[in-house]
Design a protein that fits this description.
The complex is a heterodimer of chains A (156) and B (73). By secondary structure, chain A is mainly alpha-helical. Chain A contains nine helices and two strands, in the order αβααααβαααα. In chain A, helix 1 packs across helix 2, helix 2 packs antiparallel against helix 4 and helix 6 crosses helix 7. The relative contact order of chain A is 0.17. Chain B has 73 residues and is an all-alpha fold. Chain B is built from four helices and no strands. At the A-B interface, helix 4 of A face helix 2 and helix 4 of B.
């Protein structure tokens, strides 16, 4: 298993392309979650998979949230139109506020040595924002998923 | 927009965040299209209502990486 700082650095590196794909100048919690879901056989990806959230399902949930929210504001989006930009890579990225808050929540509340599941917990514990809205729209029981992550943390 | 506001602050705030994301996506696409068709940085900046420096800083690196020919500033 990777040392936690190395894991976190790699996770954020993998979240970068997700942010770029999203045309975002910042890495947000949903981008980190997508990077986690893409991991194979890790504690965090297994927790997500237990709720049916592989990367594809998560991406679909986030896409649904985006469209649903814009639709409520009276705007419909042609996905093909948005995908026409080919040059999303190589934009300087900064850590977004939602990730900073998730890290504070997940890592700040524990006296244990930090683990990847603490990061996931911090992301899932956000009550407002894109991630909880996407999970709710996709019919995911966020409380049950949080309990599953806590259980994994207790199991060691 | 009224509907989003009627559904409560969470929906209204989410709509603001989604509209910002949409604006960013549209800006990326529009700037790329403009540069592909020979617009200059000052023209793009003026059309967006921002400074040349701002638009160059935000978009130059990704457009160069994508191999899009750029006119000089």
């Amino acid at each position: 298993m990777l040392a936690f700082p190395t894991y976190l650095r790699r996770l954020l590196e993998h979240a970068g392309p997700e942010a770029q794909r999203d045309h975002s100048a910042t890495i947000e919690a949903q981008h980190v979650l997508l990077a986690m879901a893409a991991e194979a056989g890790t504690e965090t990806s297994e927790c997500l998979a237990s709720a049916g959230l592989d990367q594809r399902a998560l991406r679909a949930a986030l896409d649904l949230e985006f469209r649903h929210t814009l639709s409520a504001a009276g705007i419909s989006v042609d996905k093909a139109e948005l995908q026409r930009s080919e040059s999303t890579a190589n934009r300087p990225l900064h850590l977004g506020t939602s990730v900073q808050h998730a890290l504070e929540r997940g890592l700040g509340a524990t006296r244990e040595a930090p683990r990847p599941a603490h990061v996931l917990l911090g992301i899932l514990q956000a009550d407002v924002g894109t991630v909880p809205r996407a999970l709710a729209l996709a019919g995911i029981d966020r409380s049950a998923l949080i309990a599953r992550v806590r259980q994994a943390l207790r199991a060691e | 927009m009224a509907k989003a506001l009627d559904e409560g602050p969470a929906d209204a705030l989410a709509a603001v965040a989604a509209l910002r994301r949409l604006a960013d996506q549209l800006e990326d696409t529009a700037v790329e299209q403009a540069m592909r068709t020979g617009w200059s940085w000052p023209e793009v900046a003026e059309a967006l209502g921002v400074t040349r420096q701002a638009v160059h800083k935000k978009h130059a690196k990704r457009l160069i990486a994508a191999g899009i020919p750029l006119r000089r500033r």
